[in-house]
Amino acid sequence: MSIDHEELEQELETLEAIYPDLLSSREKGTGLIAMKVPQHEYVTVRISFPSNYPSKEPPHVLEVIMDSNHHANETFDRKYLIQLFQEVMDSVFHKENVCLFDFFSELDGVLYIEQDEENEANSLQEDHSKLISTDPFEGWFASDPITDRKSTFLGLATHVKSEEEAFMKLDLLKTDPKIRKSHHVMCAWRIKELSNDGKEITFQDSDDDGETAAGSRMLHLISLMDTWGVLVVVVRWFGGIHLGPDRFKHINLTARQAVINAGFQRNTK
């Protein structure tokens, strides 16, 4: 038996001692285990170990199994969870060091966050009218929310006279508890200001907030609508299922509706 396998056996024995009821399957000699996630026992993870673990390569997440009787079974997409769990595994793995304990510790936070985001998205869909009645939303105009495969998108737009005002309103918007629970707060703005000598200065920019190319698409949209003095935001609450290119359709639709609702009527066709 190689040193790598000796370290693996010691790691599995430690896990069994810490979580005696959670290691549901351990196939010696095959490099395969199945284990329930601590604090989330309705989730079982099947993991394989390459021959060069832990010296060079991390374990591989083969399957994520959800308890069919648990309500979260309908919340998560299995393929997405496998990808997500593997990303967590890769993030905690460091060559020459075992990582399973750190992996399962990290999963507790990951699963909690994902559930919380889903609940917030559902709450927003049920009563988005209450969302825009709080102080951070004063002066904002909202689109109707769009929900697709458990992700919710909401467009918001407001009039601004300077970049300073735009940043102030954006920062205030992000203080709302529901906005803080979102996965992305994408934005774009186009502003005209007068300099001290009376010359017109224009500012236009965007922020993807982690949703690659979303901000630039929103900036292109408000440019086509020929709108100025506007800050437009699209908030996304991620529900655990990747939408592919459809997400950009929802971003554009909610952004456009919010801009129109805010009274920017030029070239809205």
Automatic annotation (TrEMBL):
Major localization listed first in the record, in broad terms: cytoplasm
UniProt keyword annotation of Disulfide bond present: no
One Pfam family in the UniProt entry: Impact_N
Record-linked Gene3D superfamilies: Impact, N-terminal domain, Ubiquitin Conjugating Enzyme
GO biological process, one term: regulation of translational initiation
SUPFAM superfamilies assigned: Ribosomal protein S5 domain 2-like, UBC-like
Location of the protein in the cell: Cytoplasm
Record-level Gene Ontology MF annotations: actin monomer binding; protein kinase inhibitor activity; ribosome binding
Domain RWD: residue ranges: 10-114
Record GO cellular component, one term: cytoplasm
Keywords: Cytoplasm, Repressor, Stress response, Translation regulation
UniProt record similarity statement: Belongs to the IMPACT family.
Stated name of the protein: RWD domain-containing protein
